[in-house]
Amino acid sequence: MDLKTLRAKAREELKGFCRVCPVCNGRACAGEVPGMGGSGTGEAFAANLAALEAVRLAMRTLHSVKIADTSVSLFGRTLSMPILAAPMTGVVYNMGGALSESAFINCIIEGAKAAGTLGMSGDGADPAMFDSGLAAIKAQGGHGIPVVKPRGQEAVRERLAQAEAAGAVAVGMDVDGAGLITMALKGQPVSPKTADELAECIGATKLPFIVKGIMTPEEAEIAVAAGAAAIVVSNHGGRVLDHTPGAAEVLPAIARAVKGRTVILADGGVRSGADVLQYLARGADAVLIGRPLVVGAFGGGAEGVALLLNKLQSELISAMLLTGTASVCSVSPRILC
Length: 337
What we know:
By secondary structure, the chain is of the alpha/beta class.
């Protein structure tokens, strides 16, 4: 399978929902939610890419780095790269339904594992969304991370227990989904969590707990105090609140606040290996990638997902060699201009 063929098939399968643009920047799909766009004006989606473009990499080639090591240890697993698949659901109303919810998440989890990394599954108003993710993770020997919406406490506890039973590597909650109207319309309300409620959720599972949707140092401190094993700096792909800054814009301040006390993941606008390196240089331990893997799944199934992840890894290696970076575990902010 080659990239051109993959993209052509994905464009056909996603017709009317994703244009498979040369650069996935949210311009063509602004405001298309449901769909693949960003909410409102689409500015928050675009801000993720703009934040990465605002700072440049300093190219250096007179150094001793001959081999770049992209391996990283997260949640007790050694991964081939610091790039994970972000949680995504809503195949019918966001992606057109050419794949079922189950088929889609199987592509993501299986493809990520084939590339030597981890995939996350999501949650939503249709029980098939969370259940399909759990089934896909279980089928891959627990090699995945289910992410729960910020539901009521009892509903969260039930899903945490299901994640443990599936043998998941870790579990997460995307607190940035706290205002999703679709959930309320389906009789499954979500809402913000107090610090005590978050701590109660984290204490209800033996799995490492990831809090996704952190955009300020203050909330990073709250998550760490509550016992989070990791946070994800994310504006939910620009899909929940217009006019938010890009994740890379707020990441440095968050990293200064909690670096070394929890794992820092970053999500938003990753389109190349150089983007990954930028996030690492700003303080992330690893990144999540979402929309491009939709193209991978619809264009080439699990093989397509793995192809795109391996492409990112190759680009990351090149960027590391051209900035004098030996390991993703020791990226210096000095590589930024």
